[in-house]
Amino acid sequence: MRAQHQELAEQKAELVELRLDWMRTRPDVGKLLRDRPTPVVITCRRQQDRGQWTGTEEQRLSILREAIAGGADYVDLEIDIAETVERYGDTQRIVSFHDFEETPPNLHQIYSDMTKCDPDVIKIVTMANSQEDNVRLMQLVQSATVPTVGFCMGEFGIPSRLLCGKYGSPFTYAGFSRSREMAPGQLTFAEVRNMYRFNNITDSTRMFAVAGDPIAQSMSPLLHNAAFRKVGFDGVYLPLRIPEGALETTLNDLKPLNFSGFSITVPHKQEAIQVADVPDADADEIGAANTLFKHGAEWRATNTDCDAIEQTVIDGLKKLPNRAPGIADKRVLVLGAGGVARAAVQAMLRHGARVTISNRSRERGQQLAEEMECMFLQWENRGTEEHDILINGTSVGMYPVVDETPFLDHWIRESTFVFDIVYNPENTMLLKQARDRGCVTASGVEMFVRQAARQFEIFTGQAAPREYMEETMRRAMTIGRL
């Protein structure tokens, strides 16, 4: 524990929590406090509070009192035992409340009760089951008269862990590493400090997010936050889990937090059109949007996927030997019928390609084909016809199920340009098969960076550092960020 404490100090941590309940033997509190490299919070959490303490309650309270007597900077006391542990010396008291099931409706009453327990800092941590829970807790933190650390747990709660400082929390909590996650949805210290730049988030910081479900594996936060840092833009970009069908309701719930823009991903791209006050021509024609941004009081929608797909295909076709450049009159097979597949179809049609759609759900595929006025091919027959361009707009082959392919290798012809929009992993099974066949290919990384760079420009009004974004993404994937 001392070695890890020293390591965190070297990473410029300003306050470190020592979780004594995780130690296998009774801790030597004096040794942990002696010559400590940073101020500390001493915590010894009971099993009923999802801690690891297996001793008696008398032993636990004895350890906490020993920490206070030893001059710990902070000691964490649960609300029900706070009044049984007396104040002593300069040690500050964190009075804490945790709810691992929900964000209770009586937050203000809980806070009021905690103010009566002689706190220096109040800590309220609850489980978020919707983005509305984050908003309620941020509003409580903002209105608190006692310094209050408040945020939500779980995947829904990640934004509150990063925004709580903006609303008044004196600090937030992060993990030492992925293997030492102390609570659901906890980020690592490196992520909180370096990727999200928690210490730089202020009242003037503009907020953006990627909205989808699932969202945990999205590389958009890494990419956009790196670009913000590179150009010196005062913004933070967060992962926002929103269940299917809940986009409009959630955006209404989030109004008090005043987000400036959203990247929209699965499964919300079509709903985003309905949410927008003003969709642009691209989004309207495609019937899906991947970007929502504030323009005055209005939410405007656009689709940066379309241009990104178009340019990726044009660049890829230039690499084909003995073939006419350009997309016009090319036979294109698009796999999928979701938002990104819609963008691919539109991008190809506006260049005069002959497009065929194939989708696992026949009804959705036929509906898109009729809407876009192109051909439909049943999923089981997708390998029976010859095409010049194959675009995978499905999630087949995406992490973590990386050993699947949407198109069998013996269906791939060596003259076909193969473009897989999946970016994680970059080298999908489909692309491996295509290269083995001698095909020219393009990966989802190229397209993903292009669409993100255009979003960056819409959000910030500045030119995107595209090469830096691509370098950041490839480096992260190489070192196993995902």
Q: Helical proportion? A: 25-40%
How far the N terminus sits from the C terminus, by CA atoms, comes to 27 Å
Largest sheet: 6 strands, parallel
Unreliable spans: none
User: What fold name stands as the CATH topology of the largest domain?
Assistant: TIM Barrel
What's the total count of β strands? 18
The pLDDT mean sits at 95
Q: What portion of residues belong to β-strands?
A: 15-25%
As laid out across the biggest beta sheet, the strand order is 1-2-3-4-5-6
Query: Which architecture of the largest domain per CATH?
Result: Alpha-Beta Barrel
Describe this structure in words.
The protein is of the alpha/beta class. The protein has 3 domains: 2-202, Aldolase class I (TIM Barrel); 209-302 and 449-478, 3-Layer(aba) Sandwich (Rossmann fold); 307-442, NAD(P)-binding Rossmann-like Domain (Rossmann fold). Helices cover 35% and strands 18% of the residues. The protein has 17 helices and 18 strands. It has helices spanning 2-10, 29-33, 57-69, 107-114, 131-143, 158-163, 189-195, 220-231, 247-253, 269-275, 281-286, 304-317, 339-349, 362-372, 429-436, 444-460, 466-478, and strands spanning 16-19, 40-43, 74-78, 92-99, 121-127, 148-153, 206-212, 235-241, 261-264, 278-279, 291-295, 298-302, 331-335, 354-358, 375-376, 389-392, 417-420, 441-442. The strands form 3 sheets. It has a 6-stranded parallel β-sheet with strand order 1-2-3-4-5-6. The longest helix is centred in the last third of the chain and has 17 residues, at 444-460. The radius of gyration is 26 Å and the shape is elongated. It starts with a helix and ends with a helix. The model has no long low-confidence stretch (mean pLDDT 95).
